[in-house]
Design a protein that fits this description.
Elements: E1 4-6, E2 19-23, H1 27-32, E3 39-40, H2 46-49, E4 58-62, H3 67-78, E5 83-86, H4 89-95
Parallel strand pairs: 1-5, 2-3, 2-4, 4-5
Amino acid sequence: MGVQQVAVSDVPTMFDESVVLLDVREDDEWQRGHAAGAQHIPMGDVPARIAEIDPGATLFVVCHLGGRSMRVAQYLAQNGYEPINVSGGMQAWADSGRPVVTDSGGVGTV
């Protein structure tokens, strides 16, 4: 089952109920920095927390470089979702100059 992949430039920068950026990196990675408004569920927690992911939303999945997010996207696709993998992950997000924040609202790092 193929999962759609997009470049960071094709991902919106604002997220709400209809557009979700699911960050599947580990807690320490998330705490260092993430996209504002992203939803955080570490890769290993996705099966147990799948109900937290809105199946009706446009769903972008991101990790550090794109490998883990692709595995999660494939899992979600097998469970009725239509996820879109973010090629290059948060590294590409930061490299393209998009903002990275911390939970406290400060400037984060990837």
